[in-house]
Amino acid sequence: MQVESKPLAAMHMPSFALPKPVGPRRLWIPVALLALFWVAFVLLGRIDKPYFVAFIYSMASLVPLVIGFSIWWWTNLSLRLSQRVIGCVMVLGFLAVAVAVGHHSMWFAIVTLGLPAALATWTLWMVFVHLTGIPGDRLGAVIVVALSFGFFDLLRNDGAWSDLNIDYHWRWQLTEEQKFLATHRRGNADVAAEAPTPALRQGSGDWVAFRGPERDGVMQGVTIPTDWNAHPPKERWRQRVGPGWSSVIVIGDRLFTQEQRGSEETVVCYQAETGDELWVHEDTVRFDDSVSGAGPRATPTFANGRLYTQGGTGILNCLDAATGKAIWKKDLTEIAGAKPPMWGYSSSPLVVNDLVVAWAGGPNGKGLLAFHSDSGEPAWTADAGTDSYSSPQLTTLAGKPQVLMLSDRGLFAVDPADGKALWQHGQAMPGAPRTGQPHLVGDSQLAVATLDGSGLAMIRVTQEGPAWKAETLWDSSQMKTEFPDFVIYDGHIYGFDVAMFCCIDAANGKRAWKEGRYGRGQVVLLAEQNLLLVTSEKGEVILLNANPKESEEVGRFQAIKGKTWNHAVIAHGRLYLRNASEIACYEWPGK
């Protein structure tokens, strides 16, 4: 038999080459979508923008990415239907597990950052498989997506800065609150409450309420040394405190503030000179959110020997200021049929004659509630919107005392005697975080933040017979104060335009200057010296001349560390400043 010979090259030989995995086509589409998302994330993160805009962007920016990626995935006919279903279930399943397993503060970050990170690593993996042809592409996809979500499960969110950059820590690290509770030595509150203590009386130089007696951030009759280069403020005492955004008030030798201590929301009295804890009042409630963190947001109010405090969940207390003994207590959410705002109740109670006015945000005319200060019995209710982070404000217009309240439905004015509506002005902004205090200018004008947009407006209020009329004189976008407040001096307004300090003309809203990147800080005015005491978001204290021509810095020093949204106070020759982790007292050499 004759056998036909064939060249060796033509003979069939078994192939040991690895088959190239069949993957999705048009990989440039998800790569482009993710590149756009992350470039926008980085660039927009560096741009000063209103807080509310940044918050909305952080939620809304994910939507086009998810929609675009989903359309590409489900219309990719190079994949079998089963593969598309499995891929979708894989991502959503790991997302659900990550949210369930992760720290309770991380759910928002897992959705808004963890999901884009997982899509990015998965896409990079698909590109790598496409270029190299390695096997195990499905197992690798499961691993990279699981690791992406798993990384976020190792983290804890300790709140966001005002630019919404999140303060991450490993979840096993102690929080500042836990460090405080581990080292805190509680004062003997029971002894203090039982001891015969005379009632506290308001004296000269006391700081009795949020941003002062007029709630305008103006310190009258206060002078301080200004040569901080040669003689900087000297630290007298410093200590840890529980979290919260309450500022302090000072009555004589007592300092009062509000803190969160584990499951207890507290009102705390300290010895102003030493920082020693004198008494603590506790309510077993806790407000916490992933942006602002835990703790009460409002500042105590002092009047006639009593403290009136409002907690983050809506607990309104009346306490004996000398001892901390509870006199009466109300739950505003129950009375008004309301629920706490997204970032907690932030309004400080207002005392008007024998009434205590508190913001509740309830429907059916229960936005503002008034109680008799001695008994806590209800006095009146008033319609004033259902969402706000401002505080009720007492002012006098055309000789008529009135309580002002800025909320999601505009600026309301009611009669403090009976809660009867006087006038209302401004456009409704449902869900917008309106904050800040209305400031009286002259005898008939009010400077109001976020009244007709994100900026500052000047309105004039007049009375024509029994009717009141409010009209906008100007509306300026050149000072977007958001939750920092502002002060007015000699025809000019000083405050924050997003994260930078600026000055505008009170006559027309035009900017005079803008300089000083302090973050969303706070400012008070030392009227006797024409000085602005600015607190930066990072705990620096900056002293500026109230100069409408230019930003003129006099001095600065680092007072405390960490995110500082609380207002500074000067009382009896001392400077007090706190944030969510510590409080410090400073005095000037020779004082």
> Sheet bearing the most strands, described?
5 strands, mixed
The gross shape turns out to be globular
Calculate Rg over CA atoms. Answer: 29 Å
State the end-to-end CA separation: 122 Å
Q: Helix/strand-derived class?
A: alpha+beta
Low-confidence stretches: 1-21, 189-193
Please give the number of β-strands: 37
Question: Helix amount, in percent?
Answer: 10-25%
Q: Which strands sit side by side, in order, in the main sheet? A: 3-31-32-33-34
Q: Mean pLDDT across all residues, rounded?
A: 91
Question: Can you give a write-up of this model?
Answer:
- The protein is of the alpha+beta class.
- The chain has a domain at 28-157.
- The protein contains 9 helices and 37 strands.
- It has a 5-stranded mixed beta sheet, with no helix packed on it. Strands 4-37-36-35 form a 4-stranded antiparallel beta sheet. A 4-stranded antiparallel beta sheet has the order 5-6-7-8.
- A hairpin with a 2-residue loop joins strand 20 and strand 21.
- The radius of gyration is 29 Å and the shape is globular.
- Residues 1-21 and 189-193 have low confidence and may be disordered.
Distinctive features:
591 residues; alpha+beta; four-stranded antiparallel β-sheet; 9 helices; 21% helix; globular
Fold blueprint:
Layout: H1 28-45, H2 51-60, H3 62-74, H4 81-101, H5 107-132, H6 137-152, E1 155-160, E2 166-170, H7 176-183, H8 189-194, E3 218-219, E4 234-240, E5 249-251, E6 254-261, E7 264-271, E8 277-283, E9 288-289, E10 293-294, E11 301-303, E12 306-310, E13 315-320, E14 326-331, H9 332-336, E15 350-352, E16 355-362, E17 366-372, E18 378-382, E19 393-397, E20 400-407, E21 410-414, E22 421-425, E23 439-441, E24 445-449, E25 456-464, E26 467-476, E27 487-489, E28 492-497, E29 500-505, E30 511-517, E31 522-526, E32 531-535, E33 540-545, E34 552-558, E35 569-571, E36 574-578, E37 582-587
Helix pairs in contact: 1-3, 1-5, 4-5, 4-6, 5-6
